[in-house]
Amino acid sequence: MVVAPIDPRREAELRGLLASMNDAPGRVNAANALIPFGEFETLHFARLVILDDKTQEDVRVYGLPVRTYPLYLAFLGDVDGDADAFLGKLVTRAGKGLQSIFSCCEGFASDTDLVAWMKEHETPSAAAYVNWRGRTVRGVREEAALKKALDEYLEDNAPALAGSPPREIFSKLQQFVNAEKSAGRLTLAEEDPTPTGWWIRNALHLIGVPLLFLLALPLLILIAPIFLIRLRRLEKTDVELCSRVDQAYSDALALLEDRDVTNQFNAMASRKPGLVRLWTLIGILATVDYAARHIVRHGRLGRIRTIHFARWVLLDGKQRGVFFSNYDGTVESYMDDFINKAGFGLNAIFCNAIGYPRTNWLVRDGCADEQKYRNFLRRHTLPSQVWYQAYPGLTAIDLERNRRIREGLEASSMSEQETREWVALL
């Protein structure tokens, strides 16, 4: 993620450049002249977003002065493999387009080293979620092609296969796939091994974070009662700002939504003042990041199965935060998922944002008032000026099913029950 302040004199030019990358609102041209996203085989999702926070004046409810923040441009990509390697390929192929875009940002000149500038403006996430670590763009596309080939074979051979036992169907499908692979019409390549360095860093993170927590535990036990009492007092006096958003703004957001089964989402807000809110937010995000990395099951953020990638980012000295995600379904179903399946986590994070519906002991109430929550979220939603996805039409559940189909075909053996379950996937 690269974040840079926009030169106010060139904002209109920048918006025009970003609009030129789209065929229609919310529909990027993957072969556009500036950044031809479709040519990058390791890129899952990408977006360019102008972080135009419409709620900065909300800080007045806490008696705080309204700060003047820059208008930022954010460029995000979810990629396979090494980020620096991708950045090198990106600059090699789309350097001129990137220079045109970033020249509208402060501190970028015609002779600026593009790679160094992007690394200088790289902004880490405070927490991140990946639906299925190890699943590559290449794997997704190969497995989608496999599913399509199997569907066509079953359709063409439905009369002959009708009434056949699962193991016989499986055997014929396996023979068909092997023939297609031999003829070069299907490819199911093995993934490159994960670098040893990644495993080492991941293991150190897995062990190191709990060790640090244990070391700090005596102090945490000591201050916890004071902290919780103070937090509860703050909750009782929190100001709610949950009015219905301007209809014209909501309609403009809707133009970018539901162009496909997968959608983009951005939300930005200011943090409530004080150290209690700051420490709460940092602690909760650190917990979310650790759980997403080491604890949650593949394909599930809690009980939510529709999110491909998500990240939480803190900006401006942690005074403001942005949430980005790629999810399946409508924005209404997305909000329902969070309310009904992860409401406690939603409250724990977003209760630290100014205006959020009032919570009770951090995790209760809050989004339970659905209308207030929906109004709050819509007020803070930002449009993506450019948004790219590598595999339109495929949901996260589709990707999981396709992976299971491939794994079944490549398994050395399956029981009768496993064979029936595999055939049922088709």
Describe this structure in words.
The protein is an alpha+beta fold. The chain is 47% helix and 15% strand. The chain is built from 14 helices and 12 strands. It has helices spanning 11-19, 83-102, 114-120, 137-156, 158-161, 166-182, 196-237, 247-254, 275-294, 331-341, 343-350, 370-380, 396-410, 416-424; strands at residues 2-5, 22-24, 27-28, 43-51, 72-79, 127-130, 262-270, 307-315, 320-328, 359-360, 364-365, 386-389. The strands form 4 sheets. The protein has a 4-stranded antiparallel beta sheet with strand order 1-5-4-12. Helix 4 crosses helix 13, helix 6 (166-182) packs across helix 14 (416-424) and helix 9 (275-294) packs across helix 11 (343-350). The longest helix has 42 residues, at 196-237. The radius of gyration is 24 Å and the shape is globular. The protein starts with a strand and ends with a helix. The mean pLDDT is 95.
What's a concise summary of this model?
The protein has 426 residues and is of the alpha+beta class. It has 14 helices and twelve strands.
Tally the helices. Answer: 14
Which overall shape is indicated by the principal axes computed on the Cα atoms? Answer: globular
Q: What is the mean pLDDT? A: 95
Whole-angstrom Rg: 24 Å
**Share in β-strands:** 15-25%
Helix/strand order, N-terminal first: EHEEEEHHEHHHHHEHEEHHEEHEHH
